[in-house]
Amino acid sequence: MFHLITANPEITIAQQTDMLLQAIVKEADLITPDGIGIVIASKRKGDPISERVTGYDLLLRLLERGNEQGWSFYFLGTDEETNLKAVEEMRSRYPNVVVAGRHNGFFSEDKEKLILNEIQQSKPDVLIIAMGAPYTDKWIYKNKRKLDGVKVVFGVGGSLDVIAGKVKPTPPVWKTLNLEWLHRLLTVPVAKGQKSRWRRQSALPKFFYRAIIKK
């Protein structure tokens, strides 16, 4: 199983004090820079990264390629209504993609066993998880041995919410100005049980100081 992590400043700061998350990041097969802060910091450190790669953009590219190749996907996460709408939308846009299965991100321990069994039986080429960071990557790490049949797995944050139409995509001008994070902060509602987006974004000044000013 190939575990991909899309790292943003929040994950970067959290893994400095969360030893489990630090181990997960070190063992990941590939880490992509999901955030303009990561790109800026890389330039300051003398090892520049050319551009950021968001989980949403990566998901769309994989779906496009999967539509050409007939890849299978399993979608796990977000609420039931949003998950269902997102999968229906992807089936419409990418008719040759095989939906190996889907389930919302709210389940009991007993239900989790059934979900893992379904994933083992269906052996999707790509397992997409939308249960929030860093919980998604910790869940993947915890169930690593039970996901052997999966080829690629990674978290996509709120990407399914965007595809389902629950959240509006970031306008191009915000992306051009590298202010996608600010657009989400101002417009995206916080799911029940999750931290306030303002609290989550408190990692940004810490990251800016440690990675860019302090190097």
TrEMBL record:
Keywords: Glycosyltransferase, Transferase. It is an enzyme of class 2 (transferase). InterPro entries: WecG_TagA_CpsF. Its EC number is 2.4.1.187. Pfam families: Glyco_tran_WecG (PF03808). GO terms for molecular function: N-acetylglucosaminyldiphosphoundecaprenol N-acetyl-beta-D-mannosaminyltransferase activity. This is N-acetylglucosaminyldiphosphoundecaprenol N-acetyl-beta-D-mannosaminyltransferase. It comes from Fontibacillus solani.
